[in-house]
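Suppose a colleague, Dr. K., hands you the sequence of a protein chain of 76 amino acids and asks what its three-dimensional shape might be. Before reaching for any lab equipment, you can write down a predicted structure in token form. Begin with the sequence itself:
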Amino acid sequence: MKKLTVKIDTIDKVKEFVNTLNTLDGDYDLVTDRYVVDAKSIMGIFSLDISKEIELAIHDNAPAEEAEKALAKFLA
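The predicted structure, expressed as tokens, is then:
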């Protein structure tokens, strides 16, 4: 598993982030404090405090390098 820190602090960024992730294969989770949500779920993301940086967990079945390139603009 690979972990990245992302900043998706506006509604437009959340939409773009989810749309980008949905083009990729694999499983991705967003982790803050004790909460873990599916990173491909807009509703899940809005249940988090998006004003802070969030940890993205890229699971082993996902193309980590491809995801990192696709999400470069969201990296904190």
